[in-house]
Amino acid sequence: MSKQHWYSALLGRLTNYLARSLRRWPLLLLAAGLTLGLLLSGQSGLLQESGFASAQDAEPSETSPTNAAVYHFKVGDFKAMVVSDGTLSFPPSYFVPKADPDAVAAALTEHFLSTEAVFAHVNALYLETDEHKVLIDTGSGNAFGPTAGHLLTNLAAAGIAATDIDTVIVTHAHPDHIGGILDAEGQLRLPNAQFYISQAESDFWLADTVELPKSLLDEETKAGLIAGAKAILGAIQDRTTLFAMGDEVIPHIQAIDSAGHTAGQAAFLITSGDESLLSTGDVFFSDPLNLENPDWEVAFDSDPEQGVIARRELLETVTTERRLLLVPHMPFPGLGHVRTQGDAYGWEPIVWRFNI
Ligand SMILES: [Zn+2]
User: Fold this and answer.
1) How far is the CA of 185 from the centre of ligand 1 (A)?
2) How far does residue 16's CA lie from ligand 1's centre (Å)?
3) Is residue 37 part of a domain?
4) pLDDT at residue 15 above 50?
5) How far is the CA of 24 from the centre of ligand 1 (A)?
6) For residue 275, what are the domain limits?
7) Are 175 and 162 in contact (CB under 8 A)?
8) Rounded distance, CA 344 to CA 294, Å?
9) Does the pLDDT of residue 13 top 60, yes or no?
């Protein structure tokens, strides 16, 4: 398998599985087919086959120590945790395919990072407001093999059961953000939750005809993304509330338009007392590749040119406001600030605190 295509191969297997399921099963069983397809793909160890099983994402042994997968903090009066779902990695040439490879390698090398694989964390946010126990995004579930999909296990280890969650708010409908919603049998893993997603995001993926004409991904990968989003959003439609950009999704959590990565992606501004936190969704992923080079078009963006515009707009706003951010794919816990750096930007992670 070529290194460049493990992600598309994964989604391709998913697409093929879904196609077979659709011929054999009623539409209602689509969700089960999806998650089983994801499971089959994930357990085939694509990350290992692709050669990206670096020391960074080595399989744990029973005797190896494990670092914390939860970071406790507060937003005003609200208890909050960043909970890790695990990690993903992919080739830089797949991530920013139009950028000059030498410039990409130089940017990564400057940060002492691998030039072979962009290493991305998957961070989700748990929040206890005065009324709700909230999860923003659900991790990968079974979508990406053994290095990810650990969100609910890590949440349970921190004392929060999946059944405790009453509110799930989704930034966008990519598999590393909604893959944790259904289990391998197509059952809800968060059985007591009401789901919230933007009207624009839901309308896009659930339309009769869905196309991604501006995406830099190959057709097979696009088909996998579309099939996955349709299956999962379709399965939770009767317990989903749609919101518009600017709406207060639930008290203290406001949706902010960050479309570009997907047609209806939302960021969420969480406010309690004098404090606030912006949960960004996928607007930037890597400080060398997206903050220092914000104009490099990202393959995972549905509309890469709009992705650049959305990234520039958000970065301008959050640096002006000196806003604390939670960024899903930045190194755990993904909490930090963006600062200006010449005509681009840089990342300042928070300092780890032991007492809340
Ligand atoms: Zn993502």
Assistant:
1) 24
2) 23
3) yes
4) no
5) 31
6) 3-51+69-349
7) no
8) 7
9) no
Whole-model pTM: value is 0.86
Whether 233 is covered by a domain: the verdict is yes
Residue 90 CA to ligand 1 center (angstroms) comes to: 12
Q: What percent of the chain has pLDDT over 70?
A: 83
Query: CA-CA-CA-CA torsion for 219, 223, 225, 228, nearest 10 degrees?
Result: -170
Token representation of residue 234: 């379709």
If one counts the domains in the chain, the total is 1
Give the pLDDT band (50/70/90) at residue 128.
very high
Is 59 a member of any domain? no
Which of 2, 12, 79, 72 has its CA nearest to residue 41? 12
In a domain, 62, yes or no: no
Q: What spacing in Å lies between the alpha carbon of 58 and ligand 1's midpoint?
A: 21
Residue-averaged pLDDT of the chain: 87
State how far the Cα of 121 lies from the Cα of 330, in Å rounded to an integer.
6
Ligand 1 centroid–CA 48 distance in Å is 20
- Say which CATH number the domain at 306 has: 3.60.15.10
pLDDT band for position 172 (50/70/90)? very high
Stronger pLDDT, 198 or 24, i.e. the higher one: 198
